[in-house]
Every structure is written in C-alpha cells, then in structure tokens.
Design a protein that fits this description.
Layout (H helix, E strand, L loop, with lengths): L5 E5 L2 E4 L4 E7 L9 H17 L5 E10 L2 H9 L7 H18 L4 E10 L7 H6 L4 H11 L9 H21 L2 E3 L2 H10 L14 H4 L3 E3 L6 E4 L4 E11 L21 E7 L3 H24 L6 H20 L4 E11 L2 H17 L3 E2 L6 H7 L12 E4 L1 H5 L15 E6 L13 E4 L18 E4 L6 H13 L4 E6 L4 H7 L3 H6 L1 H9 L1 E5 L11 H4 L2 H16 L6 H17 L5 H9 L4 H14 L22 E6 L14 H21 L6 E5 L3 H4 L2 H13 L5 E7 L8 H4 L4 E4 L5 H11 L5 H8 L5 E5 L5 E6 L4 H7 L6 H9 L2
Parallel strand pairs: 16-21, 16-22, 17-19, 17-20, 18-19, 20-21
Antiparallel strand pairs: 1-2, 2-3, 3-5, 3-6, 4-5, 4-10, 7-8, 8-9, 9-11, 9-12, 10-11, 11-13, 14-15, 14-24, 22-23, 23-24
Helix pairs in contact: 1-6, 2-3, 9-10, 19-20, 19-23, 20-21, 21-22, 23-25, 27-28
C-alpha cells in the first residue's frame, strides 16, 4: 500500500510521515549562446562540481517541469501596462493576439527546474532542549510525531531540527547555480501538477488534501489515466533502462525542449558510503570477468566497447579510492502526457526513438506506472528499484540540467519564435519569443544589461525595418513618446498605402492609429528652409558646436586651413552673441565680409550650398518656425536625400550634403530625448552615417550614456555593427538584433559584437540567415536565432518595404 509521502509543509520545506524533511529550490534557468560549446562545457563543469558537493545530503530530487505558457494571462498583464492615447488600440490588438496565439501555443511550455534536497536532522542536545523547555506544546507535538500520531502543522522545534541543513543546502546550490527557495505557492504547484498532468494547469492553492484530489487508474497496461471532475488525461512514465558508457554531448535532459509537446523529467540520485561505492565497482569488475570468460569459451575477439568500459572502470576505481569521488545511484524517468491515450502513445514512441539515437534506452513498463507516479511526488521514497543507473558526477553533468532555450522577456508582446535548433522554422518551432521595450533599465535580477537601448543591424531587404516597425507600433501602446528619423522618406508612404478601403473597414483601429501619427516631411521647398538650422533650436555651447561642425564639414576643409576654421568659429560665436535670432545665413554673411580672401571664398561656397536643394534645411535667417512634436508619434522624413552606400565616403556634393544633414537631425533628436518627463523612444534610421562624422559619433555616445536616466530608449538602425563594436558603446546597448552577414569578416564582427563564440558554425549560420531571421542578444545576455513573426495582416502590409510587381512575380512563377 503506497502512502502519500507529505505530512505537512512550511515555506520551502516538506515534512514527511517518516519524520524526514526535504527542502525545494527553483533554479534560475541557465542559457548558452547559439553553438557555444565553451559555455556549455562551463555549465557541465558546474553541474559536475555540484553533484560532488551534494553527496553530503545523501539524496537529491531533480525535476524539470514543463509549465504551460498562459497566453491569456500574459496578454492581460500586458494590457495592464498600456496607457495613454493608444491604450484602447493596444487592448484591441492584445485580444486579437490572444485568439491567434491560443491555437499556436496550446502545447507550448516553458521549462522550469527544481531541486529537492533531503535534509539532515540535527540531534536533540541539551542546549536545544533548553531552548524549547518552556514550549510544552511544541515538545508535546514533537513527541506525538515520534509516536506516530498525525498532525498537519509544523511545530517550531521540528522546523529547527532541519534549519541548519536547509541553510547548507541553499548555500551549496548557490555556489554553482543561482537558486531561489520556492515559495509555498510554488511548492503546492509542484504537488498539484502530479494530479493534473495534461489538464488545466494547477493554481497552487488549497490544503494538502485538495492538492491530491484525482482518480488514478493504471488499468491500461503502460499508461496511467488521471480523472478529475471535469477533465481527464493520460500519462506514460518512461524510465531509463540503459545508458551508454560515454554520455558526452548527449544533452539527455535538454534536447527534447524543441518538441511540440511537453516532456517532464524526474531524477532521483542517492549517495552511499565510500565502501559501498567500492563494492559497486567490484561487482562491475566481476561482470567484466564473466564476459571475458564467455568470449574465451566462444573463441571470439575482445569487444572494443568492453575494453573501453574496462579502462573507464579502472580510472573510476582509482578516483573513488584516492579522491573520494561518489557514485550517483540514479533513478530517472521521463513523463509524457496528453488528452488521449493515442496521443500519449505517439509522444512516448517519439521520445523512445530519439533517445535511442543517443544510445539511451527508455522503456514503458506495463505494470509499474503507478509506482513511477508515486516516485515522482516531491519528498517520496524510491519504490521502483528496477531501473537504477549508476552514474558518475561527469555523466550526470552531461544532462545539462537547468539549461533552457528561453530568450527575450517573460512579459511583453509577441515578437517571433526561437529557431536555434536545426530544422526549426516559424511554422514548427514551439518556443515563443516575447519582448518588452521598457524593462531593461529597471535592473531586473539576472539581467546582464540595464540599458533600454537597442541596435538593429543587417543589409537591406533582410528585415531590419520590418522588425523596427513592429516594435514601434507595440511601443506606442505603453504611452511612450516617439521620434523616428526617416532619411529614406518611406514610412508614411508605406503605412498609408496599406490603408486600402477594405483594410480600413476590417481594421478601423489601425487606420485611426496610422493617420494620427505626426509625419513631418522636410523638402527642398523654401517653406522648409532653415528647419534644421542648429542655431534655431539649440542654445549656448551646444548650438555653437553644432553650427561649427556643419559648416566645417560642408566646407571640406583640410587640417592645414586653420585660418578658415578659426574664422568659422569666430563667425558662429559672433552671431550667437550679437543676434537676437541667430541663423547660419548670418554666419555666412560674416564670412563673406572677411578681409581674408580664402575665408570669403568659403563664405561664397557655403552661401551657394545653403540656398540650393535640400541643404536649405540647414540655413536660415533665424526667423523660421520650429518643428512641432505635439503628437505622441513623430516621424521626421527628408525627401530626396541621396545617401552614400554604407562603408563609402561621401563623394558627390549631394552625398556630402546628406551626411551633413544627419548632424543637425541627430541634434534635434537629442534635444527630444533629453525631456525626462515621459518615457521616450528615439529611432535613428541609417545611423551609420552619423558614426562616420565626429559630431555624430559624440551624439550617439552621449545618448547611449545618458538615456537610462532620461527614460529614453535609443534605437540604432544600421547596416553594419562595425562602428558600434567598441566596449564603451556596446556595453551601453541592452538588446541587439543582427540580421544576415554578407561576408565572413562581417560575420566575425557580429559574433564579437554579440559576445558569441567565434567558430565556423556560427559564421556560416550568420551568412546563411534568410529574410526575417536574426540573432538576438537580450538584456540577460542570452543569444538565440529567431524568426520575426507579425500576427496581423494590416501590420504585415504596412511593414512591407518591397515594391509589389505582381505581373513580374506571376511571370516568374509560370516558368518554375
């Protein structure tokens, strides 16, 4: 007769009917970057050392729980963060996202990792007895427990007997892995989960009795049927019956995380005395001798596998005798579950086949399913002894216990899917990626970066703008004020082209939102002249520095032309100090009136530049009307800007003017970002041009340093990470998205920028990324290959940056 093991619990400790105590901890998930073998080896090393140190506790319970992703709960929480003008629109899209993701995420889970430690009881000594001598009730309850009387509570004396051991367990775990004491709610979740596998998730409330409600029916051989009042499910417990001699790189408690169905893992390790470990190795030696005798009798050659095993055994025997290395008598079983027995059959079959590929044999016992169920309960005893595996700390460490695929944020909007594993795509991946643009600066526990800034890099046509616009639209729901610079003058056109009559009818919220944005289009028309004159919207030294920078750049001065540089500086300072309404045209007239012919020539050149074409934006008499940023979302566009290709210097006059314009444009954005009265997002498209100028480089660095304190997130959109791959810059960037690398050299630069392991696999992966695929490093320092995925048709239409030529497409497809 099996007895439910838990008598009571308090905080993170379970007390059993046998007067034992187990403390439970949840681990912070470990992560390694994409194809990062060194980081994986580091985790293996930590797990190995942990397995050695836990030997003093005699018995350990490792659990991997697949916790269902509750899309409704996440979206409802997100809605609670929406505010301002677009909050209602955000709620509308959160509800639509719920409907779509409910279907896609019905089997999706996040894997959580728990460790239970069997605590050592402190002996009752005279000092401890004296401490509780006045607590007759406590002593009485303790004596009743020793006598076998039931009691649901936990008295102070009983708890104190295990307090020191619990502290030791907590300290030991945190020496190697980041562990948290589970809350009572989590402990109740662990218990209740056992009785509702494959059904609605447990809520972690109620008494011990209510947590164990359910009918367990092992009537069908190889399966366990769980019935609740309104739901039912089927389970199959699959113990490991055989491990290979060498478990290196098998990842046997990790690789299944990419499955489209949940897999639970329960591992119990038991430590014994050194003498018993030595006896265990002697038994194995005897088995090898018996096999040798059989080979001689059959006149067969030695088996290479047996020879390898003999060498490993000899090495292990020495380590047990000379180094005190413990053996782990391990009981491991995997659990699959589902709504029907047929569903569970298919899942169990898939698991067994895939483990067989790793030379690990799983079995599905016909008659012991209930025993294995009982053994999976927290604080239970091992009752299914047939599948004990003797492991070394090294073999156990190859499980990669605590390793997860998680990337992004727990709460945020849906961004796409993790496709880091081979063969994964947005269609078959079960790993959702969520993103919150305003969390990093809050300094959350475990985060590597406390910066809200973001880089999005990659060549044209691979998905940079698509991702940016997805983030932009989701960000407005949080009430953030946004300024986006659009040197390509395409955002408004693409957004409004999507507003077809049919789309406007189907998605009125979208139409209303897009039309409410403040599109500021700057052109070469006289009505826009001077709107980016730095002397009109900046003040003091900042205005002087910006004006000097623009004029020097447009003059294309050589280092030897110091007299002209001095004249420009004097002219700017004179206008700023003497004029009530300073403007760059007034500086030009100052230069034209100089006694130095060279200075006058530069003044004439600048006048011609400033009165023609798009350069008029930078030159005024100081009497222009400023750019209004009265709306929440402001998109600053410049028409007919001829940008040089990335990596090229400006050659033509038009390209030179385009780069010069980026300086006052960036200054304007900086002024916007400095307003700390509201959360802001400042977006620099084609930011690489800024970094190509000294003034622009200083601007970007200033914003990256001060943005957190100003509640301002800076988004840098660029074709290459080269200019940002400097410690003082990239350490101030909280999240990085990198799309395809065009060359091996660029791939190496991205790898360094993201802190990935530099190897051929990663370089090839970066060069082979397709449209919409990118590598992300999140605020926790985790890297993954993801596929961006937008859920709403009207957004997809608005984000598309490619020109539609349906006739050409149809002609091409006709000959495929």
């Amino acid at each position: 007769m099996l007895q439910f093991p838990i008598q009571s619990y308090q905080e993170n400790v379970i007390y059993t009917h046998g007067a034992e105590a187990w403390s439970y901890y949840r681990l912070q998930e470990s992560t390694v970057g994409v194809n990062e073998q060194e980081a994986e080896n580091h985790l293996v090393n930590r797990l190995q050392r942990l397995a050695l140190q836990l030997a003093v506790f005699e018995e350990i319970d490792y659990k991997i729980l697949p916790v269902p992703i509750n899309v409704d709960q996440r979206m409802d929480h997100l809605k609670g963060k929406y505010k301002g003008k677009y909050a209602e629109t955000g709620n509308y899209y959160a509800e639509r996202a719920k409907e779509i993701l409910r279907e896609e995420a019905k089997n999706m889970v996040e894997y959580k990792f728990f460790i239970g430690v069997k605590l050592k009881r402190r002996e009752l000594d005279e000092r401890l007895m004296a401490t509780f001598s006045t607590s007759f009730k406590s002593m009485n309850r303790y004596l009743q427990k020793l006598a076998g009387f039931e009691d649901d509570g936990v008295d102070e004396l009983t708890a104190s007997l295990f307090c020191e051991s619990e502290e030791d367990a907590y300290t030991t775990l945190n020496n190697f892995l980041h562990a948290y004491r589970v809350k009572e709610k989590e402990l109740r979740y662990l218990i209740r989960h056992q009785f509702v596998r494959g059904q609605s998730g447990p809520d972690g409330v109620g008494s011990v009795y209510s947590l164990t409600e359910g009918m367990l029916d092992p009537g069908k051989a190889g399966y366990l049927h769980i019935k609740q009042l309104e739901e039912e499910s089927w389970c199959a417990f699959l113990p490991v019956s055989e491990f290979p001699i060498d478990l290196s790189y098998t990842d046997w408690a990790y690789f299944f995380q990419s499955y489209s169905f949940p897999v639970e893992v329960n591992m119990r390790t038991i430590y014994k005395q050194k003498k018993e470990d030595e006896n265990q190795t002697n038994k194995i030696k005897k088995r090898f001798r018996d096999q040798d005798a059989q080979l001689i009798e059959a006149n067969e050659d030695d088996d290479s596998l047996i020879n390898t095993g003999r060498e490993l055994l000899h090495d292990l025997e020495n380590q047990i005798k000379n180094q005190g290395k413990p053996l782990l008598r391990t009981h491991i079983h995997f659990v699959v579950y589902g709504a029907t027995r047929e569903e569970v059959r298919k899942r169990a079959r898939r698991l067994k086949i895939d483990f067989d590929d790793h030379q690990i044999e799983l079995v599905q016992p016909l008659a012991d399913q209930l025993l294995l169920f009982h053994q999976s309960l927290p604080a239970s005893k091992v009752v299914a002894h047939d599948w004990e595996q003797v492991l070394t700390p090294e073999s156990f460490a190859e499980s990669l216990f605590s390793l997860t695929r998680k990337v992004g944020n727990t709460v945020g909007f849906y961004l796409g899917k993790n496709i880091s594993h081979e063969g994964e795509s947005v269609e078959n991946s079960q790993s959702l990626v969520f993103y919150h643009p305003f969390l990093a600066h809050q300094g959350l526990p475990g985060s590597k970066y406390s910066s809200p800034h973001v880089t999005i890099s990659g060549p044209t046509g691979m998905g940079k703008s698509y991702l940016l616009k997805d983030i932009l639209l989701n960000a407005v729901f949080f009430g953030a004020k946004i300024l986006m610079t659009d040197p390509k003058d395409e955002v408004e056109k693409k957004f409004k082209n999507a507003l077809t009559p049919e789309m406007a009818h189907q998605a009125p919220f979208f139409k209303e939102m897009i039309e409410s944005f403040n599109y500021i289009t700057l052109s070469s028309d006289m009505r826009d002249a001077g709107k980016l004159d730095p002397l009109t919207f900046l003040e003091g030294e900042e205005a002087t520095d910006a004006a000097v920078g623009v004029l020097e750049y447009l003059s294309e001065l050589q280092s030897s032309e110091r007299n002209i540089k001095t004249a420009i500086y004097k002219g700017v300072r004179h206008v700023v100090q003497q004029e009530k309404k300073p403007g760059l045209l007034k500086v030009i007239r100052y230069l034209q009136n100089s006694s130095d012919q060279d200075v006058r020539n530069v003044g004439d050149l600048l006048y011609e530049i400033g009165r023609n074409g798009i350069a008029k934006l930078m030159f005024s008499e100081g009497d222009v009307e400023g750019i209004s940023l009265h709306e929440q979302v402001n998109i600053l566009q410049i028409q007919n800007l001829n940008l040089p290709d990335e990596g090229d210097i400006a050659v033509t006059r038009d390209e030179h003017i385009a780069v010069a314009l980026m300086q006052p444009l960036a200054k304007f954005a900086t002024k916007f970002a400095r307003d700390d009265s509201v959360v802001k997002m400042t977006i620099f498209e084609e930011a690489w041009m800024l970094m190509n100028t000294g003034a622009g480089d200083r601007l970007i660095n200033e914003l990256l340093r001060t943005g957190r304190s100003l509640r301002s997130a800076v988004y840098i959109i660029t074709q290459s990470t080269y200019e940002y791959n400097k410690p003082q810059i990239k350490e101030n960037i909280g999240t990085k998205f990198a799309f395809k690398a065009k060359t091996t050299e660029e791939a190496g630069n991205i790898i360094e920028f993201l802190g990935m392991e530099d190897n051929k696999v990663n370089r090839d992966m970066l060069k082979n990324l397709t449209e919409g695929q990118c590598i992300v490093e999140d605020m926790y320092g985790r890297t993954a290959k993801i596929q961006t995925d937008v859920l709403f048709d009207e957004w997809i239409s608005a984000f598309n940056t490619k020109e539609n030529d349906r006739d050409a497409v149809e002609t091409e497809e006709a000959f495929i």
